[in-house]
Amino acid sequence: MQKDDFSNSYVVEGKLALPYTYFAGRLGSTFLTTLRDQARIMGVRCDKCGKVFLPPRQTCERCLEDIRDKWVALESTGVVVNFTVVRQQDKHLPRKTPYVLGMIKLDGADTPIVHIIEGVDPDKISEGMRVKAIFAPESEPSILLINHFEPAA
Ligand SMILES: [Zn+2]
């Protein structure tokens, strides 16, 4: 039978609602509640090699050390290490296109996070650009507690 061949099946057209609750886990929850309650961006540092991970993770990818409780506060400023311009509109996107999605390495971190960059013409964004986090006044506990990044003065 070929994939998508439903000739021998009884098919009911329609939509299926799948409500669920996402649990961010111990690390993700600490990261998000610190972001929400203190507007602080936290990473984790490996004591053995010194690498600082953002987003936080359980083990160091180099040393395999357990780094779950090795929290360090990071700056809300950083540098664009890569980016793309999102031009295809879709109802699930967080912004109207075109907008910039950047890989941003915060000051004090060794790994980048992906986030929205605003306040700059999508055709003028560049690697190496300095940016700062703009926090959302209110949001669901998600990475969108950082509303976006924008060029740093
Ligand atoms: Zn390490």
How would you portray this structure in words?
- The protein has 153 residues and is mostly beta strands.
- It has one domain (25-151).
- It contains one helix and eight strands.
- The strands form two sheets. It has a five-stranded antiparallel sheet, with no helix packed on it. The protein has a three-stranded antiparallel sheet with strand order 2-1-3, with helices on one face.
- The chain is globular and about 60 Å long.
- It starts with 24 loop residues before the first helix and ends with a strand.
- The model has no long low-confidence stretch (mean pLDDT 92).
- The structure holds zinc ion.
- The site of zinc ion has 8 residues, from loops.
Q: Main sheet, how many strands, which sense, barrel?
A: 5 strands, antiparallel
Total domains, how many? 1
Look at the structure and give the mean pLDDT.
92
Helix content: under 10%
The succession of helices and strands, N to C, reads: HEEEEEEEE
The count of helical stretches stands at 1
How would you describe the shape? globular
Arrangement of strands in the largest sheet: 6-5-4-7-8
* Low-pLDDT sequence parts: none
Q: How far apart, in Å, are the first and last alpha carbons?
A: 60 Å
Query: How would you classify the helix and strand content by structural class?
Result: mainly beta
Small molecules in complex = zinc ion
Strand content: 25-35%
Radius of gyration, Cα only, in angstroms? 19 Å
Number of strands: 8
